[in-house]
Write a structure and sequence with these properties.
single chain, 321 residues, alpha+beta, two-stranded antiparallel ribbon, 12% strand, elongated
């Protein structure tokens, strides 16, 4: 059989029709194989081109996101430390301070993650970095829950038992969210068979009789509503996360009945405050919406506090409480 790759022009002159047909068949088979190989290469090249295009798009999207986050971070810092912020008073700045700090920390974390993926070193700050404040120690009165972490195997590879030579201790602040539980009062019944006498302690007093909530839960609702300013509908959703259904109407009724029980305390405090020679009041003007006029009007908020006066050696002095 003739070699298709080694055949020359002079070899074709001496071929018979049968050999010539065989040679043509071999050439056609060779061409078909070459076409199949070329098609496979084209398909492989097409897949590589798609992968390169996808990688280029990912790099482009990542660079755009880095640029966007960098711009947002710069704008946030400009707003936070700009002249407009300086025109706010301390109370106004305090309203946005926590949100701005959280947003800045989130943007910086996203920027560091994207730069780490891209292998880009963070750009140096234009201004000298501020010294980080020293972390305050965790209060000593908090209980400590120890997590002992020791190696699974304390036997050396040589066969000798290792000796514990020390330890490293690190403290982090943790929290256990509010946990609901059912308080059961179990009052035993005692009887004398001889005297036919039954003895049982009365039920423990409650803030509101025949109520489902204890004094502790009622106090929690009042503190959440009037100290932490959490509306009843939000308390309802918070309690629902623990699988406890407390409708807002139930919480409102509980607050009203508990407030009624606190009336003697209110009367005592009121008499104590009004018994002072001087009752100070702080007046703060605030803007109040006036829907009918289509603008705001000036309203006032008053806070009263007690400052009794004492006369010592002919001088008028004061002592705040």
């Amino acid at each position: 059989m003739l070699d298709v790759h080694a055949i020359k022009n002079k070899d074709l002159s001496g071929l018979s029709s049968v050999d010539f047909a065989k040679l043509a068949a071999q050439m056609l088979t060779h061409i078909a194989k070459q076409d199949s190989h070329i098609a496979e290469q084209d398909s492989h090249i097409g897949e590589q081109r798609k992968q390169l295009d996808s990688a280029a798009q990912a790099i482009k999207w990542r660079d755009a996101k880095i640029e966007k986050i960098t711009f947002e971070l710069a704008r946030l810092k400009a707003w936070r430390f700009g002249a407009k912020t300086e025109r706010m008073n301390a109370e106004q700045r305090e309203i946005f301070e926590e949100t701005l700090a959280a947003d800045q920390a989130s943007l910086e974390a996203q920027l560091e993650a994207l730069q780490a993926q891209a292998g880009v070193k963070p750009a140096p700050e234009q201004r000298p970095p501020k010294r980080k404040p020293k972390r305050e120690a965790i209060p000593a009165h908090l209980p400590r829950v120890d997590q002992i972490i020791e190696p699974e195997n304390t036997t050396c590879s040589c066969g000798e038992a290792m000796v514990r030579i020390g330890e490293d201790i690190s403290e982090r602040l943790d929290i256990i969210p509010a946990q609901f539980f059912a308080q059961r009062q179990i009052r035993g019944k005692w009887a004398c068979k001889c005297c036919q006498l039954l003895v049982q302690e009365p039920a423990a007093p409650q803030v509101v009789d025949n109520a489902i909530a204890t004094a502790g839960f009622a106090a929690h609702v009042l503190v959440s509503r009037f100290v932490d300013h959490i509306p009843y509908y939000r308390q309802e959703s918070i309690n629902a996360r623990s699988g406890v259904h407390t409708p807002r109407s139930t919480l409102a009724g509980m607050s009203g009945r508990t407030g009624a029980q606190l009336t003697p305390l209110y009367d005592a405090l009121r008499d104590f405050v009004l018994s002072s020679p001087v009752v100070h009041a702080d007046e703060t003007p605030i803007d109040l919406l006036d829907p009918g006029a289509g603008k705001t009007k000036t309203a006032y908020m008053w806070a009263f506090y007690l400052e009794p006066f004492f006369i010592q050696s002919g001088e008028l002095t004061s002592q705040s409480r």
